[in-house]
Amino acid sequence: MTHPFSVQAGVLQIGGVDLRRLAARAGHTPFYVYDRSLVDARIRALRQTLPHGIELHYSIKANPMPAMVHHLAARLDGFDVASAGEMMLALDAGTRPERIGFAGPGKSHDELRRAVAAGVVIHIESATQLRLVTALGWEFGVRPCVAIRVNPDFQIGKGGMRMGGGAAPFGVDASLVPALLLELARQEVAFAGFHVFWGSQCLHAPTIIQAHRQSAELVMRLADNLEVPPAFINLGGGFGIPYFPGEDPLDFDAVGEAMHDWLPGLHRRLPGTRVVLELGRYLVGEAGIYVCRVVDRKVSCGETFLITDGGLHHHLAASGNFGQVLRRNYPVLIGNRLDEPAQERSHVVGCLCTPLDRIADGAHLPATSIGDLVVVLQSGAYGRSASPTDFLAHPPPAEMLV
Ligand SMILES: *Cc1c(COP(=O)(O)O)cnc(C)c1O
Q1: pLDDT computed for residue 397 by the predictor
Q2: What is the CATH number of domain 6-34+286-401?
Q3: Closest ligand 1 atom to the C-alpha of 149?
Q4: 3-class DSSP state for residue 310?
Q5: pTM summary value
Q6: Residue among 145, 202, 292, 353 flagged as catalytic
Q7: In the prediction, which pLDDT does 386 show?
Q8: How far is it, in rounded angstroms, from Cα 17 to Cα 345?
Q9: Residues 321-362: tens digit of each pLDDT
Q10: pLDDT digit string (tens) for 99-130?
Q11: 282 Cβ below 6 A of ligand 1
């Protein structure tokens, strides 16, 4: 697989630093390392392609490493958080509360209390959440700022993790939003906008374009119930990155071009309304790698196994256990043998006592020895924080932003 990193004398370089030096700096394998220049390049490309004024938010759950959140705080327009812990990460990075959207179907009373106190935008996902927030507003003598997360009444055709077009724990059904808006108008809350999240990990530009158009139409319809246009609409993101053989990168230029077409219509209907996209993996996924070390090599029934000190406790997604239906290999390299041709077919596994702990099945790799560094690409999102690090009581992986 092609990758965005440079190579020197057969060794992968991340942010200009030699992989072996990074292993020494981490103090141990396994570790994650993220290249900030790749994140910045992605943001620049987005800003160049998207119509002027489109706001970019980062969905912290993709990678909550505080240094990453801090890095992004200076470069993006806001954050989407889904817990009080994520909210604190965004606030700690110096983000103004009105730039933070707090979504999530199960916000606890304590979380809502902290969110109202902090003044972030609370994305209401049920009538109960609105009641709790209203009561907290009375208690604190403030007008909480709220948005409505809409469960879209359309479903998008293809790819990724689809949402919308049916029963869901997320958001308020589009058909119930007018009644909720009436209720909201009677309460001491400030209504800021709508949030439509229609899906994730989509590599098919026409699908994203259709989702954007339909989300915009849905929001314009809902906004007919308002006296003034909402301050913002958040159209979700859904931009995917290629993980598996045969997957092509998203044609992002097509998405941007289509936006230039439909955005003026939206601005005419809703003058002054800001348009927000919330992105997770598209911003950070390709900028990160997971690195573990080969600690043993053995042959069983004629097949070669490379056993590493890593595994699913650090990188659940690469093991195929984070929502994959058919297990496929994440792209894997031997990071210190990039000038050597593939010579063997081996199974790269983790160190846990479970057959689920696989990193790459039947990978074509150079002749690999104990001590070599296995690199899993496309690991900057849904890596460490989406993994069961307590499982089997091994130490957690280090994380570095270079
Ligand atoms: C997880 C999530 C995202 C980010 O998804 P990616 O696939 O990482 O881009 C965006 N919005 C909401 C509401 C989410 O829950």
Answers
A1: 98
A2: 2.40.37.10
A3: 13
A4: coil
A5: 0.96
A6: 353
A7: 98
A8: 29
A9: 998 889 999 999 999 999 999 999 999 999 999 999 999 999
A10: 999 999 999 999 999 999 999 999 999 999 99
A11: yes
Alpha-carbon distance of 335 to 314, in angstroms, equals 18
Q: Tokens in use for 235?
A: 């159209």
Amino acid in position 151? N
Q: Where are the domains of the chain?
A: 6-34+286-401, 64-279
Q: For residue 145, indicate whether it is catalytic.
A: no
- Residue 130 half-sphere exposure, CB side, CA atoms within 13 Å? 23
Note the Cα 391 to chain centre separation in Å: 23
Given the structure tokens 């359309």, which residue do they identify? 154
- Degrees, nearest 5: CA angle 264-268-270: 110
Report which ligand 1 atom has the smallest distance to the Cα of 201. Answer: 7
Could you report the per-residue pLDDT of 126-157, keeping only the tens digit for each? 999 999 999 999 999 999 999 999 999 987 76
In which band, very low, low, confident or very high, does the pLDDT at 165 lie, cut at 50, 70 and 90?
A: confident
Start-to-end CA distance of the chain, whole Å, equals 22
Q: What's the fold here for domain 64-279?
A: TIM Barrel (3.20.20)
Per-residue pLDDT band for 2 (boundaries 50, 70, 90) equals confident
List the alpha helices (DSSP H) in 124-193: 127-140, 177-185
C-beta of 208 in contact with ligand 1 (< 6 A): no
Nearest of 177, 262, 261, 278 to residue 223 by alpha carbon? 177
Structure tokens of 332? 């894997």
